[in-house]
Amino acid sequence: MFKHAEVFQKIQVNGFAYVLERSSLPKLHLNQNIDQANYVLALHSSSDKLGIAVHNLNASSENIEKTTFETGRDLSKALFICINKLLPYNNWKQIKRLAVAIGPGGYTGTRLSIAFARTLAQQLQCQLDGISSFYLMAKRLSKENISIKNNKPFWIISSLKRRGIVGGQYLIQRKALIPYFNEVLELKSPQLLPNDFQISPAIEAREDILLDTIELLKISISAEKNNKESDWNQILPIYPLSPIDNVKLNKTDLKNPGLYQSTH
Hints:
Nucleotidyltransferase, domain 5, five-stranded mixed beta sheet, alpha/beta, about 30% strand, disordered N terminus
């Protein structure tokens, strides 16, 4: 459970009041000597952990502040507090670009961070990258699995109790001169697969929230440096299950989907 600390500031965003709290942790200094900062902020809350990473585009590429918080079900109370610990609220107007993990994952956590990112991107009129959680782990998992060959598609899958298998298909481009944000192609976005659908080769999804949040940040930094446009109003959460009933996407769509990539 997220532990509260000493209150020191109250803020209002869109008519809602939020309390920011003094952290007992050491303060993180994000190049406060730089007059005009341009921050990229990445958020990943598709699990019980909240991952946050921040980079100042005016600083060295190695200068990344990142951490995770065990927020559990307290994310709605803790989101502003946690972000404030890495990037103080007074600096939010200097955010140049945002990135958020769009699932699949926990319904509430994913929805909260996306809603926050969309609202902030709209107010700041900045770009917002939305990347699936499977996409973020694709490069890491492919390196760990010797059965995955270069420039060959593979699946990342996750089993849902009594529901079936959620899967997305990916391709790692091992070519020179490809921008970092485009090294992974999402050929099929994560979705609930038909019971008899053939998925091979396949890797079980395995989150590492800190590493995946850093990957999310690096993708967004690359997109910014390459002038990639990504409108906040196109960023929506991935829900493999229909909110009305348990409807699986049909096999015809899966066989002939065309190329799909996360919005970034």
